[in-house]
């Protein structure tokens, strides 16, 4: 019996998104394969968050198309296979951590498991006892860990993470990287944005450079570094956007 190839997790074609009369994304075309980790990199204001929100229909595209696992993203059922952590994650302060997890998982038609939540919280260096406290008593880092905890507990095949390391100390960042690597090993797809390019170099199969709303280089981090003979991904990225060579190139 011949097995059919899995559809891509995300297929974006000719995507344009505007805020008022200002066009933020200009004809973006990108495919995120099922099971890969792809990092979106760009300067502040490049359109990274707008691109992620456009996939989720939180920002309505003016033109182009997006498909999730082969289905149009306008259909709620297609978005049911993903979990999203926004850039500015602010859980309601009056809820306890457990309350927030129950509410978040209910949106995915899942029931919270206290034991599983406590175990994963410990793996993210969040004291499980803190889940009993109101979120308003949390530090920024603790609140970020709660958002990550809620996102990871969904066990959805696609994770869209906008700056997931925000507010985390070095130990928590290391622990989160372990969790994301484990997600990849289990075949989950991760599409993430982060200003820390070393994280992309460590975690991502491919990176996509977004500059002024236009998608440029897409390929392996090593290929971007080799392209610019750079020792670090940060140096290669800066050389890429400064236009010191061919533009809008695609790597392997």
Description:
With 252 residues, the chain is an alpha/beta fold. Helix content is 34%, strand content 24%. The chain has nine helices and ten strands. The protein has helices spanning 48-55, 76-79, 97-107, 114-123, 140-153, 170-185, 197-203, 221-227, 233-241; strands at 10-19, 22-32, 37-41, 63-68, 71-72, 82-85, 158-162, 189-193, 206-211, 214-219. The strands form two sheets. A six-stranded mixed β-sheet has the order 6-7-8-3-9-10, sandwiched between helices. α3 packs parallel to α5 (140-153), α4 (114-123) packs across α5 and α8 (221-227) crosses α9. Mean pLDDT is 93; it is low at 244-252.
Q: So what's the overall shape?
A: globular
Gyration radius, to the nearest Å? 18 Å
Beta content comes to 15-25%
Helix count equals: 9
Measured between the Cα atoms of the first and last residue, the distance is 31 Å
Which percent bin holds the helix content?
A: 25-40%
Mean pLDDT: 93
In terms of quaternary structure, the protein is single chain
In sequence order, what are the helices and strands, one letter per element? EEEHEEHEHHHEHEHEEHH
Number of strands: 10
Give the spatial strand order of the biggest sheet: 6-7-8-3-9-10
Low-confidence stretches: 244-252
For the largest beta-sheet, the strand count, sense and barrel status come to: 6 strands, mixed
**Structural class by helix and strand composition:** alpha/beta
């Amino acid at each position: 019996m011949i097995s059919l190839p899995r559809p891509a997790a995300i297929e974006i074609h000719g995507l344009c998104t505007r805020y008022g009369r200002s066009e933020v994304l200009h004809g973006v075309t990108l495919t995120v394969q099922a099971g890969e980790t792809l990092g979106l990199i760009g300067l502040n204001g490049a359109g990274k968050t707008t691109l992620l929100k456009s996939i989720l229909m939180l920002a309505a595209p003016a033109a182009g198309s997006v498909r999730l696992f082969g289905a149009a993203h306008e259909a709620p059922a297609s978005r049911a296979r993903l979990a999203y952590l926004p850039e500015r994650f602010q859980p309601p302060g009056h809820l306890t951590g457990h309350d927030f997890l129950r509410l978040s998982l209910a949106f995915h038609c899942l029931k919270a498991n206290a034991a599983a939540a406590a175990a994963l919280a410990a793996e993210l260096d969040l004291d499980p006892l803190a889940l009993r406290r109101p979120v308003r008593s949390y530090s920024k880092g603790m609140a970020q860990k709660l958002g990550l905890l809620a996102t990871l507990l969904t066990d959805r095949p696609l994770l869209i993470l906008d700056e997931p390391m925000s507010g985390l100390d070095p130990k928590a960042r290391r622990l989160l990287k372990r969790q994301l690597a484990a997600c990849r090993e289990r075949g989950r797809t991760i599409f993430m944005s982060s200003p820390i390019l070393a994280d992309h170099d460590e975690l991502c199969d491919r990176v996509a450079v977004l500059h002024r709303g236009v998608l440029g280089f897409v390929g392996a981090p090593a290929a971007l570094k080799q392209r610019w003979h750079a020792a670090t991904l940060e140096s290669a990225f800066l050389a890429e956007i400064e236009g010191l060579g061919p533009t809008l190139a695609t790597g392997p």
